[in-house]
Amino acid sequence: MACLNRITTSPMTVNEYNSCVNQYADGVFRFILKNIKDEDKAKDIVQDAFEKLWVKLSEIESATVKSYLFTTAYNTMIDGIRRDKFTGDFENVKDADYVTHNSYSDVKEVLNEALSKLNEIQRSVILLRDYEGYNYDEIGKITGLSESQVKVYIYRARVFLKEYIGNLYQVI
Question: Which fold has domain 101-172?
């Protein structure tokens, strides 16, 4: 009976890979999309993460697949963000992108705007914690941060969000 409850530590099979695609693709996509707000880039990043998993299929244990996928997608996203920063076109920057509007009637819209104002790492850890439900240790493994660093970034992000959003009654 105990053998049925143990987590396997053998390399993944093709059937397990296909199951992982069905089980984790949507979650990884949502996480990346919330961070970069570009559906096409998010799809590319998710596809890249699953391609890397496929290449390392015989090396990855089925028990660590979810963490591997989120970590790979996160690192690919960060690489893309860094690459895009150096190729940005400063002639086409709109002032409206940097103006804060305090008269919204949609709380979700306000929250999404507030999330977009966070720096990359704060946005990532807050999304992993509050949207995807990861614990501090898992977030640390995905992002390469210590558990205490994760807690600090989450705290700072929440303080910023609270100050940015202000009193919820003023929003509604």
Answer: Arc Repressor Mutant, subunit A (1.10.10)
